[in-house]
Specification:
Layout (H helix, E strand, L loop, with lengths): L4 H6 L1 H10 L9 H25 L2 H7 L5 H16 L11 E6 L2 H14 L6 E6 L18 E3 L16 H6 L1 H6 L8 E6 L3 E2 L1 H9 L8 E3 L5 H6 L11 E4 H17 L6 H12 L4 E2 L8 E3 L2 H4 L9 E2 L14 H14 L7 E6 L4 E6 L3 E5 L5 H4 L3 E2 L1 E3 L13 E2 L9 E12 L2 E8 L12 H7 L3 E7 L15 E3 L9 E6 L1
Helix pairs in contact: 11-12
The structure holds 2-acetamido-2-deoxy-beta-D-glucopyranose (3 copies).
Amino acid sequence: MSHSSETATQDPFKLWKNLLSQPSKSSFYSPNFMKGILAICIFSALPLLYFSANFHGLISRTASCPECSPAFRRQVIHEVVNSGRHDNHQRTNISHILFGIGGSAASWGQRRHYCELWWRPHMHRVFVWLDQKPGDGAPEPWPDTSPPYKVSEDTSRFKYNCGDASRSAVRIARIVKESFELGLKDVRWFVMGDDDTVFFTENLVNVLRKYDHNEMYYIGGHSESVEQVLTHSYSMGYGGGGFAISYPLAAELVRILDGCIDRYADFYGSDEKISGCMSEIGVPLTKELGFHQMDIQGDPYGLLSAHPLAPLVSLHHLDNIQPLFPDITRIDSVKKLIKAYESDPSRALQHTFCYDMSRNWSVSVSWGYTVQLYPFLVTGKVLSIPLRTFSTWRTLSQEPFTFDTRVMSSDPCERPVVFYFDGVKDVRNQKTLTSYKRVIDPNMGMRCEREDYTAAYLVKGFNVLAANLDPRVWNKAPRRQRCELMNGSDQQDGVLHIKII
Ligand SMILES: *[C@@H]1O[C@H](CO)[C@@H](O)[C@H](O)[C@H]1NC(C)=O
Ligand SMILES: *[C@@H]1O[C@H](CO)[C@@H](O)[C@H](O)[C@H]1NC(C)=O
Ligand SMILES: *[C@@H]1O[C@H](CO)[C@@H](O)[C@H](O)[C@H]1NC(C)=O
């Protein structure tokens, strides 16, 4: 590459240096002109800076509140750094996480089933935060299958100014503060979730392990519906999918949270109020694609059968969407997915494609969930895009979503033949054999009468053999796994065999 002026203008840093150091060829962007602009910006911004610092309580509070003094902050930072130092070399494990679940006494009786699916006593440190003591609504005595509860502090002194929406957002936003103030030992991460969030905690630990808990991290995911991110934000961790806050960031957040709650009184949700605070601290959201807010309506099939290349961390809104598997209850459908997840956590929902070139068949596997068979060739690009079997969250529109989608055709000759996860058949030598069974959806009773489909309909199921996926793959550059179809393996019993390699 030559050092032509054209190359220089493509590099903003070089451009800036050139403008300031060289007599410019262009009179319009001359150095003096630029300096003038800079001066105008700085001077006109000064009152604004003062105003905004004061507004955010930074100036007045430094003077008035001892906890906000630089000395106190230095002490907190010192303690944080030292508390982490002695076990820095220890990998993060499940006991380093403190979960805070936003619940309410009235709804716990129903919602507890989702939390009870993933919570393991003696293993997961979880508190369910209620608006009042159990009794009115919440089961009495408190079930020992539910994590222990705490009753949140009274929040009536805070402002909430978002129309008819629920004031409980204030209480739930403060869960992270109340959790922090419990002062429990060896907490590296505070993870917030809703009472209808299901966490896949082994994968959560593996995701958090990638990040240094002594740094300030805010980790989570987006909404799926564009209408939601336009109303709420692109830059927040959506609370239903859950988000994680590292200890030093929580320390900083706790310091300013009550002020944020009043400053962002017109923000709808607790997660939004937290994200307001994060903007003030200056810590952006680190996005992880396995947190699922599930702001969709209808059948989650298309989304879960084309999961992004990331470990499955959470699912939410399971009461609102259709069951994950047809013909069973919502709770049982989640239990079924958890069965697969438990036998090989990192691999849950991981996507692979393989082809039978002797018949021109394309097969797409979402491990532990579904196998799709197309009796024709479909490119990898197309297979990787979720089929739109769902609509947007609020307006039930067909689109748009915050990821690519493709139309689920109403023509049976364009649809995949679908097989659902049926169970774990065998586990040995770090390998898992899972089976998938054809489910004839009564709503899609139409058959394609074309010859290639007739052959595909003869397949009764799939057996998928895979070596357990080492979670350390997630620390490497992501790459989809490959699979191999045992040609003609279905000739005897109608079951096709797949090996993931
Ligand atoms: C997690 O790591 C800590 C050390 O930081 C250790 O004391 C504890 O036993 C570990 N817990 C589990 C469940 O492995
Ligand atoms: C598979 O597809 C190729 C190219 O589309 C075609 O030439 C070939 O005849 C097909 N084979 C079978 C068995 O259908
Ligand atoms: C299946 O058949 C194709 C083409 O006929 C061949 O390239 C491939 O290696 C075969 N796969 C197996 C696992 O036998």
